[in-house]
Protein Spindly (Macaca mulatta), 555 residues
Amino acid sequence: METDIVINLRCKLKEAEEERLKAAQYGLQLVESQNELQNQLDKCRNEMMTMTESYEQEKYTLQREVELKSRMLESLSCECEAIKQQQKMHLEKLEEQLSRSHGQEVNELKSKIEKLKVELDEARLSEKQLKHQVDHQKELLSCKSEELRVMSERVQESMSSEMLALQIELTEMESMKKARVANQDLQVQLDQALQQALDPNSKGNSLFAEVEDRRAAMERQLISMKVKYQSLKKQNVFNREQMQRMKLQIATLLQMKGSQTEFEQQERLLAMLEQKNGEIKHLLGEIRNLEKFKNLYESMESKPSVDSGALEDNTYYTDLLQMKLDNLNKEIESTKGELSIQRMKALFESQRALDIERKLFANERCLQLSESENMKLRAKLDELKLKYEPEETVEVPVLKKRREVLPVDITTSKDTCVNNSAVGGGVYRLPPQKEETQSCPNSLEDNNLQLEKSVSIHTPIVSLSPHKNLPVDMQLKKEKKCVKLVGVPADAEALSERSGNTLNSPRLAAESKLQTEVKEGKETASKLEKETCKKSHPILYVSSKSTPETQCPQQ
């Protein structure tokens, strides 16, 4: 029994110890949880303290702001009252000024209306004047058109007559060309006949034949040059007449162009008249609008003023709107005044431009008339030059000629052969380029070429040694054969001066120089021909021995 009790007690003790351990564990857990809760509580308290402090600060600042705003509202209300009083005073002053300015503007508008009426009357008068001018211009246009028609008929008649004259001249020129061709054919036949008559083969190999050939060639060339000179002279006269006719036609065309410019000026004046009519209509519309505005203003003045018992706020806004409206009206009036000033300036400038255009047209007309008169005077001057001035002469070339001196007393044909062979072997012959210098008168540029100084070329005297058996006295009596080149030296310095200054010297001086030079050339040529005919031929002695150098070329 006692053991059972002890066992029970031991069991109870064990249970009590287990419970005590569990209680200790739970106590520890509770202490820990309590500590955590205490920490959380402290944190919450701290947060609450910070929140309360911040809220108190915000509350204090808001209170200060409310106090400041209340004070500002009080000051602003005081300022608004002062501004209202000032605005009322200013409004009263503005009303007085508006009434005064309105009266002034009404007076100005009345004066403007009167001025516009005066301008309208002036515009009507100017319109009447322009209409009268237009009628006058129409009459002038009809007269000018009639004159133009008459001028065109005259021009057509003159052109038809000129065409007939040109056709007649053309037929004459064709007939002259045919006659010239026939004349040239006959001249060629004559030259051929002369050449056959002067053929050196038929006469023997002599220097006479060569000289005769060259003379015939020079004559043919001279004849061809004369023919060309005559044709060029006729062509020059025809070209001058044609130029004269063209100048007259240009003068008539300039007159026709002047009438055309008058028609353009009339069209421009009509366009300007239409523009002025449109401006007059616009001004009449503005006058009507101003009269309507004046009537409305008078009706507004007759109406009773607005009730003074309205609220102050409504009056304040209405006053503001009225002020803005007045400012806008002032700006509109100022812009209208500037616009009217600009319009007046534009009208003045247009009037000035019109005057300048009239002056310009008058000057252009005078210029065209002066040009046409100038053309006519030039045509008359050319006619007088053709009529009174001498014709231009062309320089005739002065040729160097070779003169041959041969013996006369030679009888036998063998002696002539010997003489020819001796001359051919011993005479110093010049090349053809140095023997003669020719100038072609076909072109006018030959007058500008400078002539070099002609140097007389003396050929050496040709002599054949006589036979040893002949006596000395006979040798002295006999003369030797010689061939000389006789040139006609011209005044080179005068020719070079003339050729260098032909473009700058006057026409009459050049023509007189040319005439004198041609006369001198003709005189010298005639003298030379006479001298060649009159001079006797010296005798040439040849040795009797037949050498290869002295044999006749024909053998």
The CA atoms of residues 359 and 401 lie 73 Å apart.
